[in-house]
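Incident log entry.

Two folding requests arrived from the same account within the same minute. Monitoring flagged them as a possible duplicate submission, but the sequences differ. Recording both here for audit purposes.

Request one:
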Amino acid sequence: MLYQIWITYPNGWYYKDGDVWGGSYTDKYEARMQIDAITGMYNSGIGRAHALEMRKRWGARTYYHSYAWMFYLYNNPEITPVDKSELGRAEVFSPKLHGLVCWRDSWKADATAISFKSGDNCDHHGTYDAGKIQIYKYAPLAIKNGHYRGYKSSKHMYYKSAWSAGVVVFDGPRAHGWQPF
């Protein structure tokens, strides 16, 4: 749940990575159910605050229509929201593997959010480019494009690689600095 909260920009868009590049991938339909379920399991005021922000942002339709009935199962209005500023301004997720670093100047609607990858990626749907940085202020400012059409196409494989992010790559003597595809 905390990962999902940290990678959501103030406007409800997610951190752009891998398959979430097709348009603006938001927390509108498929994310609230998980937030509500975990909020209830851990009695999390932070999760409750995030769920209420989602409702304010998108209205009542924050559950995917096929799962709307689960709202009555997972939503717990008795949990008191806690201000997300309690989370602090920096977090690192999976420091020994993915190494996703998230910084924010605040948790307000006009926040600046900076995130970068500093580790490996074992996710088939993500991108493999350690060093990729994204800066958000009202909209993505510094960002690497990753939209592709065609699974395993040359464009798909290029945007999954570190070569597309302008990072230093140490690839060994056999590759001679060439892209692997």
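Request two (distinct sequence, not a duplicate):
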Amino acid sequence: MFKKNNPGCQCCNDACVIVSDTFGSNSIGYYTIHSGSWSISGGELDGSGIITHDTADTDGDHTLLVCVKTANYGDSAKFIVKFLDSNNYYFAKWTINTGDCGKMELWERKAGVETELTDSDLGDWDGFSLDTFYQFRVCIDTTRMRCSFLDGDPWQVVYSDISSPTLGTKCGVGGPSTYDLI
């Protein structure tokens, strides 16, 4: 069931692990490429496929903050949480459709099968532009997965209730897309 703006984006306490990288170095050494091709250059991570950060979360709650842009209408950026392997993880997917209207979807991938949890056409939040960075936050705890994006102030939230997400402990991203913050 689609829900937005209640409850806010925060889904874990201040002790929650937040994976962060501003790509100040051109090294991809802290990441594992699971599919596609990825590179870091000029403070940006660029590529397609799936890549995860090698730092594991130990407390069970995940928060992932990203700044992302896409170059073509219909390209999708994935924000991955609870990554166990390439067949088991949760992700939010953001797409800019023709007409600069965005779409946000929340998905679960278990045993290689993807199941959509919820989506929103984000018609209320139009004005997305190609090659422009937008900030998103994905968080997941034991009862809920949320994805929010910063659209001025405050954060706009799309969320789905889930039961006992017990997959992996890593975060990552997917594309084709470019990131300047994870």
